[in-house]
Amino acid sequence: MLCRLAWGSVARARRDYLIYLLTLTLGVTVFYAFNTISLQVDLANVNIEGLDEVLGELLGNLTVFLGAVMGFLMVYANNFIMKRRNKEFGLYQVLGMTRGQVARIMALETVIVSAAALVLGIILGVGLSQLMVFFTASLFKTQIANFRFIFSTSALALTVGCLATIFLVTLVFNLRVVRRSRLVDLMGSGRRNESIKTRNPLLAGLVCLLGAVLIGVAYSRLLHDGLPVTARSEELGAAMTQFEITTGMVTLGTVLFFFGLSGLLLKLLQAVRGIYWRGLNAFTLRQLSAKVNTVSFSMAMISMILFLAITSVTTGMSMVNAMTNSIERVNPVDFSQSFWYNYSLSEGTDEDLNPVRYVALDQPLDVASELEARGVDLGSVCDSTVQHDTYFPLGSEQVTRITSGEGTPDENPLTIGALAERTGAEVPGGMTNSDADLLGLDVMRESQYNQLLAYRGKPRVDLGENDYLITCDMGDTIAGFYDKVLASDPTIKLGDHELKPAAQKVDVDNSALTNSAMGSNSGTVIVPDAVVDDAHLQVKSSYLLVNYNKRGVSTEQGDEFMSQAALSHIEYSNIRSGSDVFGFFGPSVTRSEMLAQTNTTAGAVSYLAIYIGFVLVIACAAILAIQQLSGVSDASRSYRVLSELGCDKRQIAHSMLAQQTVFFMFPLAVGVAHSLVALRVVIDLVRLFGGLTISAMVGFTCVIFLAAYGGYFLVTYAMSRGILNDAVRIRYTA
Questions:
Q1: Which of 306-320, 467-481, 520-534, 561-575 has the largest mean confidence?
Q2: How many CB atoms sit inside 10 A of residue 11's CB?
Q3: Which of 282, 458, 542, 594 could covalently link to 453 via disulfide, CB atoms 3.0 to 4.6 Å apart?
């Protein structure tokens, strides 16, 4: 009998359960589809060892966290259903049922709805996972050779586990509510008058303005200070403190803004009497004022969560875009090995605690010979190599003085700050704390640059005796800075040579000096060889570049040889003669390795960004929907009174629609405003490392968000119309 009652109750209250069912179904769909990543990676032919396990574990842990968020949301949704059906549960007790029987009915109803959500969600999730295989292949730049149907028992088990946990939490909440509810409260819930408390409009307006001021100041601080990741290590603590203050200001400002919003709107529209007294505007504003008073904090938190969702998705996809756009350009050869020289003479101990002297060399080493001495037979994979060296724009004495703190960067004519001051170009964010601003841009010989270009099959450059070029393989922001510098036609002085620019723009496509993930050349000046010799510049680093150009050697064979050459033991090891240490090897990088790492990172970031963003948007939209449905249910008596006073049902519906539009759109507008400011800082930082086209990311994000957010808004309004129709059909009795 209880099962029949539960089934009938679900059928009768299907409109009340719609939001609950919709949110739970979407949750199950997303949980299952995203946790089939291990099968998707395999089917998409992504041959990266351990990737499926890493992503599977990462997404599994994230699913547990998001499942907890969804559980809280379901409890919130269930609270709305309980409030709607208090009188029904009270009637069951009047007819002789015990509280335990009522609780079992509620549990059976939750089981029915959860089972329906599980079935629908798994069906949709299985279909979505098949489509996501193609999405996975596009993320990891692979082709699907043999498509087949996939079904993941592990994803199903994780999804069922999360749903079971949500069900148990909801059941405990239901039992707690039934145990604490009194029969008189249940039967009289529909007759209690709605408590409407309005604050002083003037005071509320001042609070709202204070919140807006705090938000504006926080925006200004963020745009001025940027993110703490751009600070020097010694300034990181202070930068983090300032960032935390900015975060606190925008959070507090958002809460105060919504806290006083209703009073400000009420005060402003009361001043415009023609609007205030038109139709049901006075009633609408009073309802808004009362509701905002009770949900101002939740609206502020929703706007902050929407801000987090928008920023995470857009930032993540922007990073992916920047990485994939520049990866080919910043990896010019099959293999590269770097070597970094000591800056100046100093003493210390090695890993065995033996005394050593760190010696600054006058001339660069032959890196290929050093590798050959360590057993790396480069002739097995190539017929020729090319090495180029970079120098500080200073002599050894000046480098020592500046690095020891005795000198100042003002002595250096080629720092970022000096070039900006001379030409009026604005220093890119994050570059004021770089080596290029302390020790200046690197300097490179014209002959070695031409050897590098010839090795890559590029046309050579011809500089006059007093010309220079600037190269940079970083993003649009830094390259654009150098373009503005060169456009001012500045002369630079190295030793006794005064040089003028030979070009007005940076050739970004021919600026990569070694393989890297997102660019490594933040600024290198190409000068005639005589300038380097005459100015006695201090050598800084050397780069050995290798193409697998030996006949019969494929890229795969070359990479295999390099992987077996024990280069991992060479990386970061030093070169020494007795107790004198000259420098140490930097990373050895293959182009294939960089491409694989980029594709892996891009795929992982994209998955996480979309997964987190979509679930957060669903959570925010569902909370707003439940709040509004609960509010409409509470206000049904007021709507019935308006109907009996002669108000047209269409006017009442318009009033209800206006209220819901405000509650859905205002948090979204504030969240978008926060995101636009934050993204301006983030995108400027991302542009330091690669070209960026943000419009596609924003468009993609907007489509996903609007589909979910707008869908909930429409469902909420449709369900509210049903509650309104029920209210005005019932004759009002005092």
A1: 520-534
A2: 10
A3: 458
Phi, psi of 331, rounded to the nearest 5 degrees: -130, 80
> What is the tally of helices (H) and strands (E) in the chain?
25, 12
- DSSP-derived pairing of the beta strands 442-445 and 524-527: parallel
Sign of CA dihedral 610, 613, 616, 620: negative
- CA distances, 695 to each of 335, 605, 683, 727 (Å): 34, 18, 12, 46
For the chain, how are helix, strand and coil distributed in percent, rounded to 5? 65, 10, 25
Separation CA 575–CA 585 (nearest Å): 8
The values of phi and psi at residue 2, to 5°, are -65, -35
Residue 329 to residues 332, 453, 681, Cα–Cα distance (Å): 6, 13, 25
- Residue 217 token pair: 């100041």
> How far is Cα 550 from Cα 552, in angstroms, rounded to an integer?
6
Residue ranges with strand state E in 342-384? 346-349, 355-358
The Cα–Cα gap between 13 and 8 comes to: 8
- The whole-number pLDDT of residue 184 equals 47
Q: What is the DSSP string of 106-174?
A: HHHHHHHHHHHHHHHHHHHHHHHHHHHHHHHHHHTT---SS------HHHHHHHHHHHHHHHHHHHHHH
CB 163 within 8 A of CB 68: no
- Sign of the dihedral defined by the CA atoms of residues 214, 217, 221, 223, in that order: positive
Residue 647 falls in which region: left (phi positive, over 0), alpha (psi -120 to 50) or beta: beta
Residues 204-250: tens digit of each pLDDT: 778 888 988 999 999 988 887 777 766 655 566 777 888 888 888 99
For residue 329, give the 3-state DSSP assignment. Answer: coil
User: How far is Cα 506 from Cα 277, in angstroms, rounded to an integer?
Assistant: 64
Distance CA 509, CA 456 (A): 11
Do 284 and 651 touch, CB atoms closer than 8 A? Answer: no
The reported pLDDT for the residue numbered 213 is 92
Judge whether 479 and 507 are in contact, CB under 8 Å. Answer: no
- Three-class SS state of 529: helix
Instruction: Please list the residues that pair with 470 across neighbouring strands.
Output: 525
CA distance 448 to 113: 72
C-alpha dihedral (135, 140, 141, 146), degrees to nearest 10: -60
Q: Rg of the Cα trace of the chain?
A: 33
Per residue in 653-698, pLDDT (tens digit) is 888 888 888 888 888 889 889 988 888 887 766 666 555 555 555 5
Q: How far apart are CA 515 and CA 329, in angstroms?
A: 9
Please report the sign of the dihedral spanned by the C-alpha atoms of residue 590, residue 592, residue 598, residue 603: negative
Nearest CA among 72, 235, 30, 141 for reference residue 600: 141
What is the value of pTM for the model shown? Answer: 0.69
pLDDT of residue 400: 64
| Mean pLDDT value of segment 717-726 | 81
Contact in structure between 693 and 321 (CB atoms under 8 Å): yes
What single DSSP character describes residue 578? T
Phi (first) and psi of residue 423, to 5 degrees: -105, -15
Q: Which residues lie closer than 8 Å to 168 by C-beta, 6 or more apart?
A: none
69 contact partners, CB below 8 Å, separation of at least 6: 615, 616, 619
